[in-house]
Amino acid sequence: MDVTVIRVLFVLVTVAGGFGLAAYVLAWLLLPAAGEETNIASRALADRRGLTLAAGVGSLLVALLIIASLLGVGWFGTVAWPLVISTVGIVLIWRNASPGEQETLHRLAEPLMSQGSETHRRWTLWRTGIALVLLIWGLVTLLHTSHAVLRPLSGVALVIAAIVVAFGPWWLRIARDLVAERQARARAEERSDLAARVHDSVLQTLALIQLRANEPQQVIQLARAQERELRSWLFEGRAPGSPAGDGMTIAAGVRLIQQEVEEQHRIPVEAVTVGDCELDDDLAALLAAAREATVNAAKWSGAPVVSLFAEVEPARVSIYVRDRGRGFDPAAVPADRKGLAESVRARMERRGGTATIRSAAGQGTEVSLIMSRPAGRRQQGRT
After folding, report:
1. Cα 328 vs. chain centroid, distance in angstroms?
2. What is the predicted pLDDT for the residue at 120?
3. Would you list the DSSP string of 182-213?
4. Which of 3, 17, 285, 307 is most buried by its number of CB atoms within 10 A?
5. Model's pTM, two decimal places?
6. What is the tens place of the pLDDT at every residue in 176-219?
7. Contact 282, 371 (CB under 8 A)
8. Top-level CATH class of 245-383?
9. Where are the domains of the chain?
10. List of residues 6+ apart from 157 with CB closer than 8 A
Protein backbone atom coordinates (compact mmCIF):
# COMPACT_ATOMS: atom_id res chain seq x y z
CA MET A 1 0.00 0.00 0.00
CA ASP A 2 1.07 3.55 -0.65
CA VAL A 3 2.46 5.05 2.56
CA THR A 4 0.55 8.29 1.88
CA VAL A 5 -2.75 6.39 2.01
CA ILE A 6 -1.81 4.89 5.37
CA ARG A 7 -0.87 8.31 6.77
CA VAL A 8 -4.15 9.82 5.57
CA LEU A 9 -6.05 7.01 7.31
CA PHE A 10 -4.19 7.72 10.57
CA VAL A 11 -5.04 11.44 10.26
CA LEU A 12 -8.73 10.66 9.70
CA VAL A 13 -8.83 8.33 12.73
CA THR A 14 -7.05 11.01 14.79
CA VAL A 15 -9.58 13.68 13.82
CA ALA A 16 -12.47 11.30 14.55
CA GLY A 17 -11.41 10.28 18.03
CA GLY A 18 -7.78 10.99 18.74
CA PHE A 19 -6.67 7.36 18.88
CA GLY A 20 -5.08 7.47 15.43
CA LEU A 21 -2.18 9.56 16.76
CA ALA A 22 -1.63 7.18 19.67
CA ALA A 23 -1.68 4.18 17.32
CA TYR A 24 0.82 5.88 15.01
CA VAL A 25 3.21 6.65 17.89
CA LEU A 26 2.92 3.09 19.24
CA ALA A 27 3.68 1.70 15.77
CA TRP A 28 6.67 4.03 15.57
CA LEU A 29 7.90 2.61 18.87
CA LEU A 30 7.26 -1.07 18.19
CA LEU A 31 7.97 -1.54 14.46
CA PRO A 32 11.65 -1.67 13.47
CA ALA A 33 12.71 0.76 10.74
CA ALA A 34 13.80 -0.60 7.38
CA GLY A 35 17.27 -2.09 7.65
CA GLU A 36 17.24 -2.24 11.47
CA GLU A 37 16.89 -5.34 13.65
CA THR A 38 15.63 -3.66 16.84
CA ASN A 39 12.82 -1.21 17.50
CA ILE A 40 12.86 2.00 19.51
CA ALA A 41 10.93 0.44 22.40
CA SER A 42 13.66 -2.14 23.06
CA ARG A 43 16.25 0.64 23.26
CA ALA A 44 13.96 2.76 25.44
CA LEU A 45 13.72 -0.02 28.07
CA ALA A 46 17.45 0.43 28.75
CA ASP A 47 17.15 4.23 29.03
CA ARG A 48 16.35 4.82 32.70
CA ARG A 49 16.53 8.58 32.43
CA GLY A 50 14.21 8.54 29.45
CA LEU A 51 11.74 6.27 31.25
CA THR A 52 11.79 8.61 34.27
CA LEU A 53 11.18 11.65 32.07
CA ALA A 54 8.36 9.90 30.21
CA ALA A 55 6.77 8.81 33.52
CA GLY A 56 6.95 12.38 34.84
CA VAL A 57 5.34 13.87 31.73
CA GLY A 58 2.70 11.13 31.71
CA SER A 59 1.83 11.65 35.39
CA LEU A 60 1.48 15.41 34.82
CA LEU A 61 -0.95 14.81 31.97
CA VAL A 62 -2.90 12.29 34.04
CA ALA A 63 -3.20 14.88 36.82
CA LEU A 64 -4.59 17.38 34.32
CA LEU A 65 -7.02 14.73 33.15
CA ILE A 66 -8.24 14.16 36.71
CA ILE A 67 -8.67 17.90 37.28
CA ALA A 68 -10.60 18.24 34.03
CA SER A 69 -12.91 15.37 35.00
CA LEU A 70 -13.59 17.02 38.41
CA LEU A 71 -14.50 20.25 36.63
CA GLY A 72 -16.94 18.34 34.46
CA VAL A 73 -15.15 18.82 31.16
CA GLY A 74 -16.48 15.67 29.52
CA TRP A 75 -15.18 16.42 26.02
CA PHE A 76 -11.57 16.52 27.25
CA GLY A 77 -11.72 12.87 28.30
CA THR A 78 -12.17 11.67 24.72
CA VAL A 79 -8.80 13.06 23.62
CA ALA A 80 -6.90 12.97 26.91
CA TRP A 81 -5.79 9.33 26.96
CA PRO A 82 -4.60 9.33 23.32
CA LEU A 83 -2.76 12.57 24.15
CA VAL A 84 -1.09 10.98 27.21
CA ILE A 85 -0.02 7.88 25.25
CA SER A 86 1.24 9.96 22.32
CA THR A 87 3.21 12.39 24.49
CA VAL A 88 4.89 9.61 26.50
CA GLY A 89 5.72 7.77 23.28
CA ILE A 90 7.18 10.86 21.62
CA VAL A 91 9.42 11.47 24.66
CA LEU A 92 10.79 7.94 24.34
CA ILE A 93 11.19 8.32 20.57
CA TRP A 94 12.97 11.64 20.98
CA ARG A 95 15.59 10.06 23.25
CA ASN A 96 16.02 6.63 21.64
CA ALA A 97 15.38 7.01 17.91
CA SER A 98 18.12 6.34 15.38
CA PRO A 99 20.54 9.21 14.62
CA GLY A 100 18.80 9.92 11.30
CA GLU A 101 15.36 10.17 12.94
CA GLN A 102 16.72 12.28 15.78
CA GLU A 103 18.28 14.68 13.28
CA THR A 104 14.92 15.03 11.53
CA LEU A 105 13.09 15.62 14.82
CA HIS A 106 15.62 18.25 15.93
CA ARG A 107 15.33 20.01 12.57
CA LEU A 108 11.53 20.08 12.81
CA ALA A 109 11.60 21.34 16.42
CA GLU A 110 14.34 23.90 15.80
CA PRO A 111 11.94 26.87 15.30
CA LEU A 112 10.38 26.14 18.71
CA MET A 113 13.65 25.61 20.59
CA SER A 114 16.09 28.06 18.99
CA GLN A 115 16.89 31.30 20.77
CA GLY A 116 17.54 33.51 17.74
CA SER A 117 18.04 37.26 17.98
CA GLU A 118 16.67 39.61 20.63
CA THR A 119 13.83 40.65 18.32
CA HIS A 120 12.97 37.02 17.63
CA ARG A 121 12.91 36.18 21.35
CA ARG A 122 10.69 39.21 22.10
CA TRP A 123 8.29 38.25 19.33
CA THR A 124 8.20 34.63 20.57
CA LEU A 125 7.31 35.80 24.10
CA TRP A 126 4.54 38.05 22.77
CA ARG A 127 3.18 35.25 20.62
CA THR A 128 3.27 32.78 23.52
CA GLY A 129 1.51 35.24 25.80
CA ILE A 130 -1.24 35.92 23.25
CA ALA A 131 -1.67 32.20 22.69
CA LEU A 132 -2.01 31.56 26.43
CA VAL A 133 -4.60 34.33 26.82
CA LEU A 134 -6.62 32.96 23.93
CA LEU A 135 -6.34 29.41 25.27
CA ILE A 136 -7.48 30.38 28.80
CA TRP A 137 -10.28 32.51 27.37
CA GLY A 138 -11.42 29.62 25.18
CA LEU A 139 -11.36 27.11 28.06
CA VAL A 140 -13.28 29.50 30.32
CA THR A 141 -15.83 30.03 27.57
CA LEU A 142 -16.25 26.29 27.13
CA LEU A 143 -16.73 25.79 30.87
CA HIS A 144 -18.90 28.74 31.90
CA THR A 145 -20.87 30.02 28.91
CA SER A 146 -24.56 29.55 29.64
CA HIS A 147 -25.72 29.41 26.04
CA ALA A 148 -25.48 25.86 24.74
CA VAL A 149 -24.97 27.00 21.17
CA LEU A 150 -22.36 29.68 21.86
CA ARG A 151 -20.26 27.52 24.19
CA PRO A 152 -18.81 25.10 21.63
CA LEU A 153 -18.58 27.66 18.82
CA SER A 154 -16.86 30.53 20.62
CA GLY A 155 -14.76 28.33 22.91
CA VAL A 156 -13.46 26.08 20.14
CA ALA A 157 -12.76 29.12 17.94
CA LEU A 158 -10.64 30.70 20.68
CA VAL A 159 -8.76 27.45 21.35
CA ILE A 160 -8.04 27.03 17.62
CA ALA A 161 -6.88 30.66 17.44
CA ALA A 162 -4.50 30.02 20.36
CA ILE A 163 -3.05 26.94 18.62
CA VAL A 164 -2.60 28.85 15.36
CA VAL A 165 -0.88 31.77 17.08
CA ALA A 166 1.45 29.45 19.00
CA PHE A 167 2.33 26.99 16.26
CA GLY A 168 1.49 28.83 13.03
CA PRO A 169 5.04 30.13 12.36
CA TRP A 170 6.44 26.66 13.06
CA TRP A 171 4.01 25.03 10.62
CA LEU A 172 4.86 27.67 8.03
CA ARG A 173 8.60 27.01 8.51
CA ILE A 174 8.08 23.27 8.03
CA ALA A 175 6.03 23.86 4.87
CA ARG A 176 8.72 26.15 3.46
CA ASP A 177 11.44 23.62 4.26
CA LEU A 178 9.49 20.87 2.48
CA VAL A 179 9.02 23.05 -0.61
CA ALA A 180 12.71 24.01 -0.63
CA GLU A 181 13.71 20.35 -0.21
CA ARG A 182 11.52 19.27 -3.14
CA GLN A 183 12.90 22.06 -5.33
CA ALA A 184 16.48 21.11 -4.44
CA ARG A 185 15.75 17.44 -5.20
CA ALA A 186 14.23 18.39 -8.57
CA ARG A 187 17.26 20.54 -9.44
CA ALA A 188 19.64 17.75 -8.45
CA GLU A 189 17.76 15.23 -10.61
CA GLU A 190 17.77 17.68 -13.52
CA ARG A 191 21.53 18.21 -13.18
CA SER A 192 22.10 14.45 -13.02
CA ASP A 193 19.99 13.89 -16.11
CA LEU A 194 21.85 16.66 -17.95
CA ALA A 195 25.20 15.16 -16.94
CA ALA A 196 24.09 11.73 -18.17
CA ARG A 197 22.97 13.20 -21.51
CA VAL A 198 26.26 15.02 -22.00
CA HIS A 199 28.20 11.88 -21.05
CA ASP A 200 26.26 9.72 -23.50
CA SER A 201 26.64 12.15 -26.39
CA VAL A 202 29.45 14.70 -26.30
CA LEU A 203 31.93 12.79 -24.13
CA GLN A 204 31.39 9.53 -26.01
CA THR A 205 31.90 11.31 -29.34
CA LEU A 206 35.08 12.98 -28.12
CA ALA A 207 36.41 9.60 -27.00
CA LEU A 208 35.64 8.16 -30.45
CA ILE A 209 37.35 11.10 -32.15
CA GLN A 210 40.50 10.41 -30.13
CA LEU A 211 40.41 6.73 -31.15
CA ARG A 212 39.86 7.62 -34.84
CA ALA A 213 42.37 10.47 -34.99
CA ASN A 214 44.13 8.79 -37.93
CA GLU A 215 40.86 8.56 -39.92
CA PRO A 216 39.98 12.15 -40.91
CA GLN A 217 36.83 11.24 -42.80
CA GLN A 218 35.43 9.28 -39.86
CA VAL A 219 36.29 12.11 -37.48
CA ILE A 220 34.42 14.57 -39.70
CA GLN A 221 31.34 12.32 -39.76
CA LEU A 222 31.36 11.95 -36.00
CA ALA A 223 31.74 15.70 -35.48
CA ARG A 224 28.89 16.49 -37.90
CA ALA A 225 26.59 13.95 -36.27
CA GLN A 226 27.36 15.37 -32.84
CA GLU A 227 26.75 18.91 -34.11
CA ARG A 228 23.32 17.88 -35.39
CA GLU A 229 22.49 16.29 -32.04
CA LEU A 230 23.52 19.38 -30.09
CA ARG A 231 21.64 21.75 -32.38
CA SER A 232 18.54 19.58 -32.07
CA TRP A 233 18.94 19.65 -28.27
CA LEU A 234 19.47 23.42 -28.05
CA PHE A 235 16.88 24.63 -30.54
CA GLU A 236 14.31 21.82 -30.77
CA GLY A 237 14.42 20.45 -27.22
CA ARG A 238 15.18 16.86 -28.24
CA ALA A 239 17.88 15.54 -25.93
CA PRO A 240 20.74 13.47 -27.38
CA GLY A 241 19.89 9.80 -27.56
CA SER A 242 16.14 10.46 -27.39
CA PRO A 243 14.16 8.40 -29.89
CA ALA A 244 12.67 10.58 -32.58
CA GLY A 245 8.95 10.74 -33.35
CA ASP A 246 5.79 10.51 -31.27
CA GLY A 247 5.03 6.93 -32.36
CA MET A 248 8.39 5.53 -31.31
CA THR A 249 8.28 2.06 -29.79
CA ILE A 250 10.60 -0.19 -27.82
CA ALA A 251 11.41 -2.34 -30.85
CA ALA A 252 12.23 0.70 -32.99
CA GLY A 253 14.41 2.11 -30.20
CA VAL A 254 16.33 -1.16 -29.89
CA ARG A 255 16.92 -1.19 -33.66
CA LEU A 256 18.15 2.41 -33.45
CA ILE A 257 20.63 1.45 -30.70
CA GLN A 258 21.81 -1.46 -32.83
CA GLN A 259 22.40 0.76 -35.89
CA GLU A 260 24.15 3.55 -33.98
CA VAL A 261 26.52 1.27 -32.05
CA GLU A 262 27.40 -0.79 -35.12
CA GLU A 263 28.06 2.35 -37.14
CA GLN A 264 30.08 4.21 -34.55
CA HIS A 265 31.99 1.37 -32.89
CA ARG A 266 32.23 -1.10 -35.78
CA ILE A 267 31.12 -4.12 -33.79
CA PRO A 268 28.13 -6.37 -34.56
CA VAL A 269 25.11 -6.04 -32.24
CA GLU A 270 22.65 -8.94 -32.21
CA ALA A 271 19.26 -7.45 -31.28
CA VAL A 272 16.15 -9.47 -30.43
CA THR A 273 12.82 -7.99 -29.31
CA VAL A 274 9.86 -9.92 -27.90
CA GLY A 275 6.68 -7.84 -27.87
CA ASP A 276 6.43 -4.11 -28.39
CA CYS A 277 4.83 -1.02 -26.90
CA GLU A 278 4.93 2.74 -27.32
CA LEU A 279 7.43 4.79 -25.34
CA ASP A 280 6.77 7.02 -22.38
CA ASP A 281 9.33 8.97 -20.33
CA ASP A 282 10.23 5.95 -18.18
CA LEU A 283 10.76 3.64 -21.13
CA ALA A 284 12.76 6.31 -22.93
CA ALA A 285 15.10 6.39 -19.91
CA LEU A 286 15.26 2.59 -20.08
CA LEU A 287 16.38 2.76 -23.72
CA ALA A 288 18.96 5.45 -22.89
CA ALA A 289 20.43 3.24 -20.15
CA ALA A 290 20.46 0.26 -22.55
CA ARG A 291 22.26 2.34 -25.16
CA GLU A 292 24.96 3.31 -22.66
CA ALA A 293 25.37 -0.31 -21.54
CA THR A 294 25.70 -1.42 -25.18
CA VAL A 295 28.27 1.29 -25.89
CA ASN A 296 30.27 0.25 -22.82
CA ALA A 297 30.25 -3.38 -23.98
CA ALA A 298 31.36 -2.35 -27.48
CA LYS A 299 34.19 -0.17 -26.13
CA TRP A 300 35.60 -2.14 -23.24
CA SER A 301 34.57 -5.81 -23.36
CA GLY A 302 36.79 -6.89 -26.24
CA ALA A 303 34.04 -9.27 -27.34
CA PRO A 304 33.51 -9.84 -31.08
CA VAL A 305 29.74 -9.31 -30.76
CA VAL A 306 27.29 -7.75 -28.29
CA SER A 307 23.81 -9.19 -27.64
CA LEU A 308 20.82 -6.95 -26.96
CA PHE A 309 17.58 -8.61 -25.86
CA ALA A 310 14.34 -6.72 -25.03
CA GLU A 311 11.11 -8.22 -23.69
CA VAL A 312 7.84 -6.36 -23.30
CA GLU A 313 5.43 -7.77 -20.71
CA PRO A 314 2.14 -6.34 -19.43
CA ALA A 315 3.67 -5.29 -16.09
CA ARG A 316 7.24 -4.44 -17.08
CA VAL A 317 9.82 -4.06 -19.85
CA SER A 318 13.20 -5.79 -19.54
CA ILE A 319 16.35 -5.23 -21.57
CA TYR A 320 19.48 -7.39 -21.26
CA VAL A 321 22.88 -6.43 -22.67
CA ARG A 322 25.34 -9.34 -22.80
CA ASP A 323 28.85 -9.89 -24.04
CA ARG A 324 31.39 -12.71 -23.74
CA GLY A 325 34.36 -10.43 -23.32
CA ARG A 326 37.01 -10.00 -20.69
CA GLY A 327 34.64 -9.04 -17.87
CA PHE A 328 35.42 -6.74 -14.93
CA ASP A 329 34.75 -6.11 -11.25
CA PRO A 330 31.90 -3.53 -10.95
CA ALA A 331 33.11 -2.53 -7.45
CA ALA A 332 36.57 -1.69 -8.81
CA VAL A 333 35.39 0.84 -11.40
CA PRO A 334 37.16 4.20 -10.76
CA ALA A 335 34.98 6.97 -9.31
CA ASP A 336 35.65 9.25 -12.30
CA ARG A 337 34.04 6.73 -14.69
CA LYS A 338 30.40 7.81 -14.70
CA GLY A 339 29.01 5.47 -17.36
CA LEU A 340 27.67 2.76 -15.05
CA ALA A 341 27.04 4.94 -12.01
CA GLU A 342 25.19 7.85 -13.65
CA SER A 343 24.11 6.84 -17.16
CA VAL A 344 22.87 3.38 -16.19
CA ARG A 345 22.20 2.87 -12.46
CA ALA A 346 21.22 6.42 -11.45
CA ARG A 347 19.18 6.97 -14.59
CA MET A 348 17.13 3.82 -13.90
CA GLU A 349 16.70 4.60 -10.20
CA ARG A 350 15.39 8.11 -10.93
CA ARG A 351 12.59 6.53 -12.95
CA GLY A 352 11.84 3.75 -10.47
CA GLY A 353 13.62 1.01 -12.42
CA THR A 354 16.42 -1.36 -11.48
CA ALA A 355 19.82 -2.05 -13.01
CA THR A 356 21.75 -5.22 -12.16
CA ILE A 357 25.30 -5.82 -13.40
CA ARG A 358 26.82 -9.31 -13.33
CA SER A 359 30.38 -9.75 -14.50
CA ALA A 360 33.38 -11.95 -13.90
CA ALA A 361 36.89 -11.86 -15.27
CA GLY A 362 37.11 -13.84 -18.49
CA GLN A 363 33.38 -14.70 -18.49
CA GLY A 364 31.81 -11.58 -19.92
CA THR A 365 29.19 -9.18 -18.58
CA GLU A 366 25.42 -9.02 -18.39
CA VAL A 367 23.50 -5.82 -17.62
CA SER A 368 19.83 -6.36 -16.69
CA LEU A 369 17.55 -3.34 -16.93
CA ILE A 370 13.95 -3.61 -15.71
CA MET A 371 11.31 -0.87 -15.78
CA SER A 372 7.79 -1.35 -14.43
CA ARG A 373 4.84 -0.18 -16.48
CA PRO A 374 2.05 1.92 -14.90
CA ALA A 375 -1.31 0.18 -14.57
CA GLY A 376 -2.85 2.47 -17.17
CA ARG A 377 -0.31 1.36 -19.77
CA ARG A 378 -0.28 -2.39 -19.16
CA GLN A 379 -1.83 -3.48 -22.42
CA GLN A 380 -0.46 -6.66 -23.90
CA GLY A 381 2.63 -5.87 -25.95
CA ARG A 382 2.47 -6.09 -29.71
CA THR A 383 4.43 -8.86 -31.36
Report:
1. 31
2. 60
3. HHHHHHHHHHHHHHHHHIIIIIHHHHHHHHTT
4. 285
5. 0.51
6. 777 777 788 778 777 877 777 777 677 777 777 777 778 787 77
7. yes
8. alpha beta
9. 1-114, 245-383
10. 138
